């Protein structure tokens, strides 16, 4: 969910100087390691194993987005296929999360669909699922359409939806009958006011309403993706009598004590584990969510 401060932050982190500060200096890389499991698949697998030991399932995210050539889109697809093979080989309790612009959506919808078919097919062989992340609003319709197509073919796919968009209640009504898991998050991109709520209290209220909407539908598999105490408490209350599937989801490196607490209480929890060298855009979204992260970086940069 993006405040005015965060919109400025996202713009600033788009600049070449900011990118250099974060990616070329050790302070930037140190901060990234708070939120990213490492640059290689082996490092991510090691992190995922530890999370499994702590009683959590995992969603592996090979970082990357907005690719501008077919070769990079195919490479991203192959990285995901390799990740799924590794999940099978190591017996991880994990699925994968993908971004369609990483698989070529901005270049050619057909390339992204074909890649999704291969990834969902391999995930089915391995006995796991795929979640499609929700990116910024130019891709919302295409993401839901591709989700619908692939979920109907393979039955092991889910998708994220964003509480800050006014359209999301209608989108949930449309996709819930498809039976895939639906990850409800607040939304992490800078969006125009005409389509998205910018005030935190409005986004939080809509998140609560959408949580109730998901829980009321027995065919939906809700994944409540938030670190917000009040929204987690609400979901904890709503799941007391729920027999149908449900899970909490959180990001690697954020609110780890709360993660352990949910597991101790017997709630299913999946941790989103990003890895790879393309971590800069992911890091900028984590910074924009929380001004304190930027202060932490500035202190590390200036040695204070
Ligand atoms: C599993 C998962 C998958 C996601 N997938 C998507 C997606 O597909 N598309 C999308 O647009 N967004 C996605 N997001 C991001 C989401 O939209 C929010 O931007 C992010 O989760 C912050 O919102 P919050 O619900 O944690 O609430 P907030 O009100 O932002 O935060 C609540 C509390 O959590 C802690 N916290 C939150 N963020 C940070 C941070 N960056 N650093 C340190 N502490 C923090 C703080 O203690 C804060 O007070 C995902 C989030 C999760 C958990």
What's the topology here?
Elements: H1 4-12, H2 16-24, H3 26-35, H4 41-53, E1 57-62, H5 70-90, E2 94-98, H6 109-126, E3 130-132, H7 140-154, E4 157-162, H8 168-175, E5 181-185, H9 200-215, E6 221-225, H10 229-238, E7 247-251, H11 256-264, E8 269-275, H12 280-289, H13 291-302
Parallel strand pairs: 1-2, 1-8, 2-3, 3-4, 4-5, 5-6, 6-7, 7-8
Helix pairs in contact: 1-12, 2-3, 3-13, 5-6, 6-7, 9-10, 12-13
The protein binds flavin-adenine dinucleotide.
Can you offer a commentary on this structure?
An eight-stranded parallel beta barrel has the order 1-2-3-4-5-6-7-8, surrounded by seven helices. β4 (157-162), α8 and β5 form a beta-alpha-beta unit. The chain starts with a helix and ends with a helix. The chain has 13 helices and eight strands. The radius of gyration is 18 Å and the shape is globular. It has 304 residues and is of the alpha/beta class. It has two domains: 1-36 and 283-304, no CATH class; 39-278, TIM Barrel, CATH 3.20.20.220. Flavin-adenine dinucleotide binds next to β4, β5, β7 and α12.
Number of strands: 8
Look at the structure and give the CATH class of the largest domain. Answer: Alpha Beta
Secondary-structure element order, N to C: HHHHEHEHEHEHEHEHEHEHH
Number of domains: 2
Helix content: 40-55%
Mean pLDDT: 91
Q: Spans of 5+ residues with little confidence (pLDDT < 50)?
A: none
In short:
The protein has helices at residues 4-12, 16-24, 26-35, 41-53, 70-90, 109-126, 140-154, 168-175, 200-215, 229-238, 256-264, 280-289, 291-302, and strands spanning 57-62, 94-98, 130-132, 157-162, 181-185, 221-225, 247-251, 269-275.
């Amino acid at each position: 969910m993006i405040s005015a401060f965060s919109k400025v932050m996202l713009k600033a982190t788009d600049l070449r100087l900011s990118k250099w500060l974060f990616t070329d200096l050790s302070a930037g890389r140190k901060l990234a390691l708070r939120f990213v499991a490492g640059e290689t698949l082996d490092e991510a697998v090691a992190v995922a194993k530890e999370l499994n030991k702590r009683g959590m399932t995992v969603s592996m995210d090979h970082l990357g987005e907005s690719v501008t050539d077919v070769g990079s889109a195919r490479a991203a697809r192959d990285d995901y296929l390799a990740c799924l093979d590794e999940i099978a080989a190591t017996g991880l309790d994990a699925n994968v999360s993908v971004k369609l612009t990483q698989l070529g959506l901005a270049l050619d919808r057909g390339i992204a669909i074909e890649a999704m078919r291969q990834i969902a097919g391999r995930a089915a062989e391995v006995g796991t699922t795929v979640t499609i992340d929700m990116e910024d609003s130019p891709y919302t319709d295409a993401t839901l359409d591709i989700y619908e197509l692939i979920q109907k073919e393979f039955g092991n796919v889910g998708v994220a939806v964003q509480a800050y968009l006014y359209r999301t209640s209608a989108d949930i009504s449309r996709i819930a009958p498809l039976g895939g898991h639906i990850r409800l998050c607040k939304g992490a991109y800078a969006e125009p006011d005409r389509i998205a709520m910018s005030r935190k209290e409005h986004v939080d209220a809509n998140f609560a309403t959408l949580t109730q909407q998901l829980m009321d539908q027995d065919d939906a598999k809700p994944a409540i993706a938030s670190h917000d105490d009040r929204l987690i408490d609400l979901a904890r209350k709503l799941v007391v009598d729920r027999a149908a599937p449900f899970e909490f989801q959180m990001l690697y490196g954020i609110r780890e004590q709360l993660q352990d607490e949910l597991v101790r209480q017997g709630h299913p929890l999946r941790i989103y584990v990003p890895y790879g060298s393309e971590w800069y855009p992911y890091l900028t979204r984590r910074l924009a969510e929380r001004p304190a992260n930027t202060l932490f970086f500035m202190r590390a940069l200036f040695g204070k």
